[in-house]
Amino acid sequence: MKRDKRRIKRHRCEVCGYRGVTQIHHIFPGPLRRISEREDFVIELCVSCHRRAHTDADFSFCLKHDAQLDWLYSGHTMEEWMRMMHRSWVYIREVEKRPQRQEVPKDGPGRFDDEEDRWQSRK
Prior knowledge:
single chain; mainly alpha; 8% strand; globular
């Protein structure tokens, strides 16, 4: 855990946003802990969320799922992931349907413009 002590902490939970005492959580524990260190699959959590990460299987699964998707979206392949981790926490269709950044036109309609028009028509 020497690397944990050198890691710069922001003292903000990355799940709930709590500011204060935080702890570093290795998303992939046990035999995958070294991979978590090397690939930066760690997250800063408050004490409550850290406890939850170790006791709530669904919450832990979500952390693993999101870490894998972020890694894959950063340009890596599923084959690389499987060679490294030997298990997947995402569906292949999630990787194939990678979200694309959408440009919003500066002069175009805003997100709620159509709702405002409907509100105006009711008056």
